[in-house]
């Protein structure tokens, strides 16, 4: 299978698992060597990445409004721009970049502009 198809497959799996707040399923996209770069700093390994998504799911729980504004894939790189709204936060813009190695996410950057009632 060509790399761009694999990247699309991994990204689709990731987005469906994220939309369902399915932590176990989302973790299948990562390995112990995976790293997520976030506003709070880099996170490496499955335990750290799991905690990151647990916290993120409190901001964007299942059933939240989520709109994909842009989705681009080139070889093993995927880039998305999105918006979301939930009872606890409004995110007018969020962006993620995924670097896929094999069929796993090796590097993932995530940033969003978040408005909360706090």
Q: For the CA atoms, what is the radius of gyration?
A: 14 Å
Strand order across the biggest sheet?
Answer: 2-1-6-5-4-3
In DSSP terms, counting alpha (H) and pi (I) runs of 4 or more, how many helices? 3
CATH class: Alpha Beta
Q: Helicity level, as a percent range?
A: 25-40%
User: Would you tell me the overall average pLDDT?
Assistant: 95
Which series of helices and strands comes N to C?
HHEEHEEEE
Beta-strand level of the residues, as a percent range? over 45%
Structural class comes to alpha+beta
**Overall morphology:** globular
Low-confidence stretches: none
CATH architecture group name: Roll
Q: What's the total number of strands?
A: 6
Question: How many domain modules?
Answer: 1
- According to CATH, the fold-level topology is Nuclear Transport Factor 2, Chain: A
For the record, give the distance between the C-alpha atoms at the N and C termini, rounded to a whole number: 47 Å
In this structure, how is the largest beta sheet organized? 6 strands, mixed
